[in-house]
Amino acid sequence: MTMRVRSAMALAPILLLAACSGAAGDGNPAEPAALTLTPGAWAADGERASYADEDGTLLASFRCDAETAELVLEMPGGFADGARPAMLLRAGDFMHGVDPVEVRAGADGPVRLARLPAGGPLTDAIRGFPVPLTIESDGGEPVMIETDAVLQGYFERCAAAAGGPEGGQ
């Protein structure tokens, strides 16, 4: 069974403008301001893009690692006992498997970290058109999240920061 989560497409342009407007020189680079999550939509700042479900619960975040030209997916929770620490991400006609997935202790419990290329086919599919992103892991319920202009813009900025031509590979 797939949990389908829809974004508020009407808020996407507003959130994109808000994310771009205050990211540059906000004083304290050591401690970034908390990202305000909008239930059912992506929100982004200079540090990350995050999605919260309709109840306001964080489902997923992406951080850009420009040095390695990768996007780092962070999802709350660990893996079930005996489950393979791996994830399969799908967007459009593209899939990307991450094996193994790193699990770190976070302030609110375990956090899964999966790295994917900033200019790979999966991220290019999301940057090109808002397609659903499905995230599956062994022993866990698949999660489907609608992508939007906010996530597309964040992926575009990450690809450009990673040095790809036209923000790509």
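(the above was protein one; protein two follows)
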Amino acid sequence: MHHSAPPGVPAQPPAHDGAGTCAELERLRAEVAQLRTALDRRPVIDMAKGAVMAVARCDEETAFQQLSRVSQSHNVKLFDLAQALVQDLPASARDVAPRRPQPVPRTVRDLDRLVACHWTRV
């Protein structure tokens, strides 16, 4: 009995020569590595978005846009900015009295200052 393949799917996989198969394998390995990196970094970016959302009282999309805008304007990777913001949160809370915690960045200008603190070279 002959079964046909679903629409848009070849009946049999295309034949590859050895070089094509190796190149495809390397491409897939690189893609898997990129996906793993993205999965590892996502929680940090999500925490930074949450901090911006809580302080600026904005939605997730607006918080991400603010982080992205600062990242691009300072040529700093989004993950690096997010990591610095998240790392600054506990330090700010430890350095001041419990009733008056230091606010986290509220605006793009405050995020700009965070970038200047971490990446500006004198």
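Reviewer note on protein two: The mean pLDDT is 75.
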